[in-house]
Amino acid sequence: MLKAIQILGSSSGFVSHRLKPHGNCGLSFVSISTKPSSSSSSRTPTTKNSLLSPTLSVRKGPCLRAFRVSLTRCESNPDGTSSPSSVAFQSNGNTRKIKFCQLCGGPTKHEIPDGEEKMRAICTLCGKISYENPKMVVGCLIEHDNKILLCKRKIQPSYGLWTLPAGYMEIGESAAEGAIRETWEEASAEVEVLSPFAQLDIPLIGQTYIIFLAKLKRPHFAPGPESSECRLFSLDDIPFDSLAFSSMLVTLKLYTEDRKVGRPKFHYGTINKRPGTSPSEIRAYTLDYHMLS
């Protein structure tokens, strides 16, 4: 659990660092680097059959498998450069959507404040700077009798498609508490959270997903107001062609791959959605900076 929480606590804007050992658990060095393309043709994303697009090499420690990830310029930052020991991340937020001050209602201007590096919406009356932060989506991957529980959405977007029970985290609750609440709201299921399974950042839409492994406290579930159907699926019957979002596709592929070789691990990764694609185009992504423990 400790090694999972150490990765879970980091954000998508991390740089190379050494994880300190705790007790008898030895942690390996994790580093991430990008390689500039050698020709202009490499700027065009290519389609790969593998879920994981980076080139990976593994160094095993007693408690953590550390991946050194080498990537060409990522899709969300085609002109970015970086040093061999760090990754340059580019924010995709659209501050210009904020036209009025959230404090006094005055009109905003868009400038880079002193001491900062990003364009912000600044109130022309009271001077308040508006900051935008990602939304946290939390949910549960529920295991029961070697099957997993999925819900068919009864709301847009992705009406009629399958998803894990998940939704936006509320103020005043922890990520695990939010995942338990969302599971009750969407599947009328009481669950016990077992461990974190995945943290998936989606910079283009400003979301971070945290998915927990969980089990049913009792074998009962039923559709909630936002679901038309709830069903247990075996690994071979997961409806990969009818999933609601890229995040669900990535999560379930990682889970099924883990199950085929043993037990589930903890995964961190960044889902870089192809700009201009809709939520229904769930395969229009690359999974970058993938690490697992």
The CATH architecture term of the domain at 135-292 is: Alpha-Beta Complex
Write down the CATH class of the domain at 135-292: Alpha Beta
Strand element count: 17
Question: Secondary-structure element order, as H and E?
Answer: HEEEEEEEEEEEEHEEEHEE
Mean pLDDT: 77
Runs with pLDDT <50, length 5+? Answer: 1-90
Look at the helices and sheets and give the structural class: mainly beta
Number of helices in the DSSP assignment: 3
Reported by name, the CATH topology of the domain at 135-292 is Nucleoside Triphosphate Pyrophosphohydrolase
Percentage of residues in helical conformation: 10-25%
Q: Using the alpha-carbon principal axes, give the shape.
A: elongated
Gyration radius, to the nearest Å?
20 Å
The termini sit apart by: 10 Å
Strand percentage = 25-35%
Q: What would CATH call the homologous superfamily of the domain at 135-292?
A: Nucleoside Triphosphate Pyrophosphohydrolase
Major sheet: 9 strands, mixed
Structure description:
A hairpin with a 5-residue loop joins strand 7 (120-123) and strand 8. Among the domains are: 95-130, Ubiquitin Ligase Nedd4, Chain: W (Single Sheet); 135-292, Nucleoside Triphosphate Pyrophosphohydrolase. Helices cover 12% and strands 33% of the residues. With 293 residues, the protein is mainly beta. The strands form 4 sheets. Strands 9, 10, 11, 12, 13, 14, 15, 16 and 17 form a 9-stranded mixed beta sheet that branches. Strands 3-5-4 form a 3-stranded mixed beta sheet, with no helix packed on it. Strands 6-7-8 form a 3-stranded antiparallel beta sheet, with no helix packed on it. It is built from 3 helices and 17 strands. The chain has helices at 2-8, 175-187, 246-261; strands at 17-18, 29-30, 32-34, 55-60, 65-71, 108-111, 120-123, 129-130, 135-144, 147-153, 162-163, 166-168, 191-202, 207-216, 227-234, 267-273, 285-292. InterPro entries: NUDIX_hydrolase-like_dom_sf (IPR015797), NUDIX_hydrolase_dom (IPR000086), Nudix_N (IPR029401). Residues 133-256 form the Nudix hydrolase domain. This is Nudix hydrolase domain-containing protein. Residues 34-53 are annotated as: Disordered. Residues 34-50 have a biased composition (Low complexity).
